[in-house]
Write a structure and sequence with these properties.
heterodimer, A: 230 residues, mainly alpha, 2 domains, 12 helices, 0% strand, globular, B: 123 residues, 5 helices
Chain lengths: 230, 123
């Protein structure tokens, strides 16, 4: 029985993923987010069939156990673009480093300013990095994985809708710098938009996405201690 | 069939790096996730020639092509968190939008400034 429920949960998620993905491929609109759409479809099916969330948890754990090897796999695009990385090393390191620092510090300050509860603030800190890194930050330092993924998707959507226009407005024309900002500020969703601008922007955004994820997990323990005194 | 087995074996090898990363983090008591340490290890292994790209690239490309799939199960839990958005929606939007704007401006300008300084005539 357990195996049946687990298989059902996995099948349901796969179905939701392929449906959401085909809708995105058809319309390519940044508001059609595969993560949120897919998760909404799964949640709706669970509610309609009166299956409690707890019954979905084993399937969830099994699927998410592949997130570890997938994250490690991000070393492959990094390695393939190693020449690009070393050619623009100063711009990449400073842009990603300072961008990441800005993201975490400013969201912590803004969240404190509007008096959000601690668990929500902790889930907000990794909002600019791609989900596998955000989930680990939350798992190690507190917060909710679901909230963190929602905030990550919100940030990605915002950045992919307005990011390009914002960069033009503030005078960032250099394609490498634009890609850097999109990957650092809006992870995978920003990277998808950067690829629509051009391959140079897209590749750079992909590298910035991985590097800002690593930087955020490295900086998180220190920043949380400094910014959010318990 | 051969390709499927190859992808599975390569995912197994990537998982070995996750495990190594986790062991390293717990032995050194560093507050770092195993997958991030594993990612750094794999990059170093590729750079030093210890691991050849052919040994892992099909497994990695497969997982990365469907990376978004693995995010869906984490977000399903949102069905239990509806109240937070109802209660704090506006404040959350303010914090996220403000911080995202700053992040774009800072990383874009820092990147552009250093690019112009280091290679004034390159494209």
């Amino acid at each position: 029985m357990r195996l049946v429920i687990m298989g059902f949960g996995i099948g349901l998620t796969l179905g939701a993923y392929f449906l959401a993905k085909s809708l995105y491929m058809k319309y390519r609109h940044p508001l059609l987010n595969v993560v949120l759409l897919g998760a909404t479809l799964v949640a709706a099916a669970l509610l309609l069939l009166k299956i409690p969330y707890q019954a979905y948890v084993p399937a969830r754990s099994l699927m998410m156990s592949l997130l570890g090897p997938a994250t490690v796999g991000l070393a492959v695009p990094l390695y393939r673009n190693r020449d690009l990385l070393s050619r623009h090393a100063p711009a990449i390191l400073a842009g990603v480093g300072l961008g990441t620092l800005t993201s975490v510090v400013s969201v912590a300050w803004l969240a404190a300013f509007v008096a959000l509860p601690r668990e929500v603030v902790l889930s907000l800190l990794p909002k600019s990095v791609t989900i596998p890194f955000a989930l680990e930050v939350v798992r190690l330092h507190g917060g909710s994985q679901a909230l963190a993924s929602a905030f990550v998707v919100a940030t990605g959507t915002l950045g992919s809708v307005f990011g390009g226009a914002l960069l033009t407005r503030v005078g960032v024309q250099d394609p490498i710098a634009r890609g850097l900002a999109m990957g650092t500020g809006s992870h995978g969703q920003g990277t998808a938009m950067a690829f629509l601008e051009g391959p140079q922007q897209g590749t750079m955004a992909g590298l910035a996405m991985t590097l800002s994820g690593i930087t955020t997990t490295l900086l998180a323990p220190l920043l949380i201690r400094l910014l959010l005194k318990a | 069939m051969h390709r499927v087995l190859k992808v599975i074996a390569q995912i197994g090898l990537l998982s070995l790096f996750v495990w190594l990363g986790g062991r390293f983090a717990s032995l050194t008591r560093l507050p770092l996730p195993g997958n991030v340490v594993g990612l750094i290890f794999l990059y170093l292994a590729l750079r030093s020639g210890l691991v050849k790209l052919e040994l892992i690239q099909e497994g990695a490309d497969f997982l990365l092509r469907h990376l978004v799939f693995f995010f869906i199960p984490a977000a399903v839990d949102l069905m239990n968190w509806g109240g937070v958005f109802y209660q704090y929606g506006f404040r959350l939007a303010l914090a996220i939008a403000g911080s995202t704007l700053l992040t774009f401006v800072v990383s874009g300008h820092v990147g552009q400034w250093l690019r112009r300084r280091n290679q004034p005539c390159a494209s």
